[in-house]
From TrEMBL:
Entry coiled-coil feature ranges: 138-172
Pfam families with a match to the protein in the record: DASH_Spc19 (PF08287)
Subcellular location: Chromosome, Centromere, Kinetochore; Cytoplasm, Cytoskeleton, Spindle; Nucleus
GO cellular component, one term: spindle microtubule
GO terms of biological process kind: attachment of spindle microtubules to kinetochore
Family: Belongs to the DASH complex SPC19 family.
Identification of the protein by name: DASH complex subunit SPC19
Record lineage: Eukaryota, Fungi, Dikarya, Basidiomycota, Agaricomycotina
PANTHER family in the cross-refs: DASH COMPLEX SUBUNIT SPC19
UniProt entry keywords in alphabetical sequence: Centromere, Chromosome, Coiled coil, Cytoplasm, Cytoskeleton, Kinetochore, Nucleus
Source organism of the structure: Sphaerobolus stellatus (strain SS14)
């Protein structure tokens, strides 16, 4: 991998602005004959350092997210199982009486609704028996019968709702 400062035409260094080679008065070179090898080795070192830097950046780019994940993991490691079970038992002890009270209230409500339903059913039966004996008052009885039937349906719906709520509370109590 080449560094961005490297010339794209090849691996040769750029031309120097200084005169190289023998000086006009001497026939001996000013620079060491191994200078090109030294420059090539320095360039190779720079390339390797650049590759290592890119690799390091890729490796630590996800550091903020990973530190957050590890921090959350440490939170769970700090709480041992005995503490968690103790707190859950305390929570059950606090909630269980309230759930029991709600279940009792729901059962009382169901009993009241069942009594109302039986009273309405007996009224409907009585009205039906009177309606069959008296044909002349059929329209008035039919209106009352329809009203009572609607009232009965509403109470049955309320009974179903309360029984579903009781079942839900019992299932929460069991779990």
């Amino acid at each position: 991998m080449l560094r961005p400062s490297y010339a794209p035409t090849g691996r040769q260094p750029r031309e120097s602005v200084f005169i190289s080679g023998p000086l006009p008065q001497d026939n001996e070179p000013v620079c060491s004959p191994y200078i090109e090898a030294c420059v090539a080795a320095a360039q190779e070192s720079c390339d390797r350092i650049y590759e290592a830097q890119c690799s390091l950046r890729r490796g630590v780019a996800d550091l903020p997210r990973m530190s957050k994940v590890l921090q959350n993991e440490r939170l769970f490691v700090l709480i041992n199982e005995s503490h968690a079970s103790t707190y859950s038992l305390q929570l059950v002890e606090e909630i269980e009486p309230q759930i029991g009270e709600l279940a009792e209230r729901a059962e009382k409500g169901i009993k009241v609704l069942e009594r109302k339903e039986s009273l309405l059913a007996s009224k409907v039966d009585a009205l039906q028996s009177r309606a069959s004996s008296r044909v002349s008052s059929a329209p008035a009885v039919a209106k009352k019968l329809d009203a009572l039937a609607r009232q009965r349906e509403a109470l049955e719906q309320e009974l179903q709702t309360l029984s579903a709520e009781v079942e839900h509370l019992e299932s929460r109590l069991m779990s």
